[in-house]
């Protein structure tokens, strides 16, 4: 049984090997490597699939044996420091391995079709493999130094993939924004790691937890200093998981290809922050102030993300703010001590959100030949509508993902989301209210996205009227009409010969369903989106019942795993009534405003955005909500004024000081010397008595001044 554990290092090595081989091929043999692009894609998928099967075997052994294994190798050995590298296998690691590899394989299969016509197809698979390998290395790390190393690799890969189409100005700015904001969090994480090493003298997770609790119990460590170090540690997950106030990079990250958006939101970047808080949970749990900060940060993020998502027109940005809100839910659960609920929602949300993002990519893929290849058009829900009859499989799978994220039983997220508001009420009523309201808002904006996209009438004709075409009009011609530069890498299909609104001289009025390669991951992801929630359902065993997830996490949870008596089944079901009720209310309101059956007369614009009609009726409240959501809570604007504008003011002040004070002082000395020399040269008459008089006068004058002043 231990043999598979000893070779667990193969799991991150396989995708890393694929990335290295592709990278070396592109560097030394670019033409040959690009000509074998499908072979490289198949190799990447195959190697990650092997890692996935090994991960499933590890998971199987973990759930049956509850064994925790650490394999350590000495790296640095000195009198003052001993540092080891190795691997850690526990229930949390096994769950994350399965999550990352399954979603990673499906995203790669999807990318084979989605990126098939992109010039950077091979480069994309190299980045994708490296991204997956970095995340796998992160979850296997047994100490803080290894965690930080792979943490930075994950950040670097996100920078490369968000800016994959780097010739597009929006993508270049988005990857820089993500990089800078994550550097803030990473700097705090590094300071926190160094602080706890100074306190405990160890980087190893288990030794650090034991030593810190011992010092805390004996009052041998400053509580305020320990709290400060823990908050600095938490700053890393705040940035990586897009928690308020370091969340502003996440919606802009949608400039990257849609497959990488799915991977970032489901199994890598966002999940990395939640994973780190879960991994360091024994450390945070010992500091009540830090737990309070974590819970309130999660609550604020959940509510803020939900309110901003209400009126987004870009389908990917709407899903991005949904991820922000749901990651806040997970952070809230961990902050209130509900360890199992937070991880449970991480699992169910990952599969649901991967399904939603890949489904949105299917929609974008089908809309681009009609409305053009600019994200402002192909991702804009104003040009969608009525797609269900043309894309039935995509519509059904997205409906499953939508209802799951809304918390509708018996789908996966219902079982995990229901537990978080119930625990929040017990922790603090205000946080309970926030969690409950957020559940309703989530149901509203998610069902709104589905209804606007798939129901009602097609609004693509509005684009046709705005941009009349004849014959074959390509996206490049549309770019030329709008006087925009034509980027080298704008989308996976920009180099297609037929990227027009007509095909073979015949007008294509509606989008088509995606091909089988893209639909396969959607159908597969629909299964865990539907069934994965049952791992948290209580199972009767005699007179008692327990849920599988608590049983699996038993070694990581203090005390025995959660046991629910039969009498508590009524309590379990009663806790679900408020969350299901508020979610149903959100669904009903969304259907009332955006459903295919109009409850009040409205035109095409109102069919897309009823808030506009309410604004015309003079409803200031809805007008405020719409503006708050559409302008992202004005937070980006305030950041531009305070940080960007403030930085520019500081730069101008620094430039003034450098030019006129520092350089001015140096230049002033030079100018004064030059002018002094020019002045004194006129006093040189060549008479020695005059020179002697000046010398004697200059020598005795200071002496006379000192004498008379004293």
Automatic annotation (TrEMBL):
Pfam families, A to Z: Proton_antipo_C, Proton_antipo_M, Proton_antipo_N
Protein's UniProt name: NAD(P)H-quinone oxidoreductase subunit 5, chloroplastic
Main EC class the enzyme belongs to: translocase
Subcellular location: Plastid, Chloroplast thylakoid membrane
UniProt GO MF annotations: NADH dehydrogenase (ubiquinone) activity; NADH dehydrogenase activity; quinone binding
EC number: 7.1.1.-
TM regions (residue ranges): 6-27, 39-61, 81-109, 121-141, 147-167, 179-201, 221-239, 260-281, 287-309, 329-348, 393-412, 424-447, 517-539, 576-594, 691-709
Function according to Swiss-Prot or TrEMBL: NDH shuttles electrons from NAD(P)H:plastoquinone, via FMN and iron-sulfur (Fe-S) centers, to quinones in the photosynthetic chain and possibly in a chloroplast respiratory chain. The immediate electron acceptor for the enzyme in this species is believed to be plastoquinone. Couples the redox reaction to proton translocation, and thus conserves the redox energy in a proton gradient.
NADH:ubiquinone/plastoquinone oxidoreductase chloroplast chain 5 C-terminal domain sequence ranges: 499-658
Catalytic activity: a plastoquinone + NADH + (n+1) H(+)(in) = a plastoquinol + NAD(+) + n H(+)(out); a plastoquinone + NADPH + (n+1) H(+)(in) = a plastoquinol + NADP(+) + n H(+)(out)
Organism in which the protein naturally occurs: Flatbergium sericeum
Stretches assigned to coiled coil: none
Residues annotated as domain NADH:quinone oxidoreductase/Mrp antiporter transmembrane: 141-441
GO CC terms in record: chloroplast thylakoid membrane
Record keywords, A-Z: Chloroplast, Membrane, NAD, NADP, Plastid, Plastoquinone, Quinone, Thylakoid, Translocase, Transmembrane, Transmembrane helix, Transport
Membrane topology: Multi-pass membrane protein
Keyword Ribosomal protein (UniProt): no
Designated gene of the protein: ndhF
An annotated GO BP: electron transport coupled proton transport
Family that this chain belongs to: Belongs to the complex I subunit 5 family.
Origin: domain of life: Eukaryota
Residue ranges annotated for the NADH-Ubiquinone oxidoreductase (complex I) chain 5 N-terminal domain, each copy included: 75-125
């Amino acid at each position: 049984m231990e043999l598979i554990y000893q070779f667990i290092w193969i799991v991150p090595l396989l995708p890393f090997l694929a990335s290295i081989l592709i990278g070396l091929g592109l560097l030394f043999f670019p033409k040959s490597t690009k000509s074998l692009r499908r072979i490289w894609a198949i190799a990447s998928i195959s190697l990650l699939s092997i890692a996935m099967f090994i991960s499933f075997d590890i998971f199987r052994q973990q759930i049956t044996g509850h064994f925790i294994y650490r394999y350590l190798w000495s790296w640095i050995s000195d009198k003052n420091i001993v540092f080891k590298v190795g691997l850690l296998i526990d229930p949390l690691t096994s769950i994350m391995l399965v999550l990352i590899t399954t979603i990673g394989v499906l995203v790669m299969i999807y990318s084979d079709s989605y990126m098939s016509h992109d010039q950077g197809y091979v480069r994309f698979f190299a980045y994708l493999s490296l991204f997956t390998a970095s995340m796998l290395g992160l979850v296997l790390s047994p100490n803080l130094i290894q965690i930080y190393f792979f943490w930075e690799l994950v950040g670097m890969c996100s920078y490369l993939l968000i800016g994959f189409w780097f010739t597009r100005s929006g993508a270049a700015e988005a990857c820089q924004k993500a990089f800078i904001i994550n550097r803030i969090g990473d700097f705090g994480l590094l300071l926190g790691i160094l602080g706890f090493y100074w306190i405990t003298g160890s980087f190893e997770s288990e030794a650090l937890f034991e030593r810190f609790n011992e010092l805390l119990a004996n009052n041998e460590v400053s509580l305020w200093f320990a709290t400060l170090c823990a908050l600095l540690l938490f700053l890393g997950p705040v940035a990586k998981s897009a928690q308020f106030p370091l969340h502003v990079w996440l919606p802009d990250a949608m400039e990257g290809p849609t497959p990488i958006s799915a991977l970032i939101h489901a199994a890598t970047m966002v999940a990395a922050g939640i994973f780190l808080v879960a991994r360091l949970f024994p450390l945070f749990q010992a500091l009540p102030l830090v737990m309070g900060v974590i819970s309130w940060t999660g609550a604020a993020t959940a509510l803020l993300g939900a309110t901003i998502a209400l009126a987004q027109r870009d389908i990917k940005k709407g899903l991005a703010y949904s991820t922000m809100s749901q990651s806040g839910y997970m952070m809230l659960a961990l902050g209130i001590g509900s360890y199992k609920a937070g991880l449970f929602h991480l699992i169910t949300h990952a599969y649901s959100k991967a399904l939603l993002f890949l489904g949105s990519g299917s929609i974008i893929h089908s809309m681009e030949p009609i409305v053009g290849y600019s994200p402002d058009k192909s991702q804009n829900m104003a040009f969608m509508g009525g797609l269900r009859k043309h894309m039935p499989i995509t519509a059904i799978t997205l409906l499953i993902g939508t209802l799951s994220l809304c918390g509708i039983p018996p789908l996966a997220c219902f079982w995990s989301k229901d537990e978080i508001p119930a625990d929040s009420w017990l922790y603090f009523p205000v946080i309970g209210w926030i969690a409950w309201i957020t559940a309703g808002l989530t149901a509203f904006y998610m069902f709104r996205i589905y209804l606007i996209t798939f129901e009602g009438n097609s609004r693509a004709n509005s684009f046709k009227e705005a941009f009349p075409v004849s014959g074959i009009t390509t996206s490049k011609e549309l770019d030329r009409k709008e006087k925009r530069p034509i980027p080298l890498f704008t989308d996976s299909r920009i180099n297609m010969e037929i990227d027009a609104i007509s095909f073979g001289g015949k007008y294509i009025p509606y989008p088509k369903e995606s091909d089988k390669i893209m639909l396969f991951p959607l159908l597969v992801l629909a299964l865990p989106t539907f069934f994965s929630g049952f791992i948290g359902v209580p199972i009767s065993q005699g007179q008692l019942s327990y849920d599988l997830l608590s049983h699996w996490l038993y070694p990581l949870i203090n005390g025995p795993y959660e046991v629910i008596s039969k009498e508590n089944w009524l309590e379990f079901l009663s806790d679900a009534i408020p969350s299901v009720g508020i979610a149903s209310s959100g669904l009903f309101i969304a259907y009332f405003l955006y459903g295919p059956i109009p409850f009040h007369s409205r035109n095409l614009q109102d069919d897309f955005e009823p808030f506009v009609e309410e604004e015309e009726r003079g409803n200031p409240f809805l007008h405020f909500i719409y503006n708050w959501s559409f302008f992202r809570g004005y937070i980006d604007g305030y950041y531009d004024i305070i940080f960007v504008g403030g930085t520019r003011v500081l730069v101008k002040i620094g430039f003034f000081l450098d030019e006129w004070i520092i350089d001015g002082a140096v230049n002033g000395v030079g100018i004064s010397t030059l002018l002094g020399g020019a002045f004194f040269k006129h006093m040189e008459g060549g008479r020695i008595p005059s020179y002697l008089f000046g010398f004697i006068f200059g020598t005795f004058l200071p002496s006379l001044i000192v004498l008379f002043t004293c």
